[in-house]
Amino acid sequence: MVFNSLAFAIFLPIVLVGYYLLSFKGQNRFLLLASLFFYAWWDWRFLFLLALTISVDFYASQAIHRAQTKKLKLRWLRLSLASNILVLSVFKYCNFFVSSFEGLLHTIGFQVHPITIELALPIGISFYTFMSMSYVIDVYWGKVQPEESFWDFALFVSYFPHLVAGPIMRAEQLLPQFKKERHVTKEMIRDGLALMLVGYVRKVLIADMLAGYVDEAFLNVHAMTSADLVIRLWLCAIQIYGDFAGYSDIARGVSKLFGIELHLNFATPLLSQNITEFWRRWHITLSSWLRDYIYIPLGGSRNGEPKTYRNLMVTMLVSGLWHGANWTFIAFGAVHGIALALHKLWMQITKKPMPKAFGTRKWNWAAPLKIFATFNIFAFSLVLFRSPSFGIAWQYLTRIVELVPGIHLGTSLFVIPFVGLTLALDLAQYTGIGQRLVGGMGPVRRAVAFGALFALVLIAGSDHSLPFVYFQF
Q: Are 64 and 139 in contact (CB under 8 A)?
């Protein structure tokens, strides 16, 4: 089931009514059943994988807590990690590893015909696996106590607003909310509906409207001029942002209706003035997960500059591989690893401190140039993210470098309203203007405004309902 479907439009009100009618003791169990139904709607057969992850990690965390020696704790941790990595390897990376090995043997003169298994990719597997793994690691580190209730832990992993595309929540953020009685206020419902509305606008009125223009560029590279290809890369950046940030907004909004807060996942990343700031504002929960469970355990920046750059590169290569089982995704991660390392090196050469606090921004005459440069680093890296092969990516970049003359004025002008709408939503959302505006409306005006915008979204999305981009991850 997806958020932009008729099934979800029927599902959510039914779940909300049932949730509000139940006492606190019944709400968690009801949410768990609703979440399992939500996941099973796509393919009920993959419920067993979800159940496997939940069961192994729940009992491994209990065993880690009870173990008397560090060696025994480590064994249980390794069992949990091995189980999660095995599931990911089989269902997401198996054919990738096999085909890569076949290609390597072919280059050195060996002809092999390996057997590959065509398996459907379980939706959301990368998201809920990372959540569950972080919980077990935190128990091993002593950061959290193991959850005593199997059912509450199952809800933590499978909670349907975040289940298939994040945010990637931590145990200390979400489990305490399941343990206490929740009171859903009018303000929560108002803010939740507003977040959902913003998310649907991002998805339907921005991302889905741009999808065809972006697809056309990658399907017909040789029919495009250089300027058109650059413009469509800009559109691609806005499309992917609108799609994923839209999902996160809807997820957070839906969760608010249940009185449960999910972590902010995007914070005006397209206004970042350097690549380090960009990754602190883009897919925040993944970036922080990679920092805490890959970068810092590798040593972070504690062991000298060469190892710091190595750790950055390894972390971003893992990020690329997380996004998809394709060498283009790994190359996407490598590009950002290099960009982050170069920015860190530049800050050291100029003796400027790295930005420390999230949300800190300095605006001066150079800010627009820095924003434009950072945006283009991201946009051009999407050639790798979006291309199915290096061949297509090479054709795309080569066509741009060839400086093929000409430009379609209509497409160029087409960028402007989408950039404007994206920035307007960002500024309204993250400066608090939007919340103050909605809060200042009376109930009738708010209902009319929300209803009109939801109707516009429904009309715009009635002819096509595109899947969310990050569902493939």
A: yes
Between residues 328 and 404, which one has the greater pLDDT?
328
Task: Name the one residue in this structure whose structure tokens are 């405004």.
Answer: 449
Scan for tokens 């069961």, then name that residue: 55
Q: How many CB atoms lie within 10 A of CB 296?
A: 14
d(CA 266, CA 261): 15
Q: Of the candidates 308, 307, 327, which has an alpha carbon nearest to the alpha carbon of residue 317?
A: 327
Read off the tokens for 84: 């999660």
pTM: 0.90
In 3D space, the residue among 284, 281, 323 whose CA is nearest the CA of residue 125 turns out to be 323
Q: How far apart are CA 218 and CA 229, in angstroms?
A: 9
The model's pLDDT over 19-48, given as tens digits with 9 standing for 90+, comes to: 999 988 899 999 999 999 999 998 888 899
Residue of 323, 336, 343, 464 with catalytic role = 323
CB 156 within 8 A of CB 116: no
In the residue annotation, 343 being an active-site residue is answered as no
**Other CB atoms within 10 Å distance of the CB of residue 266:** 23
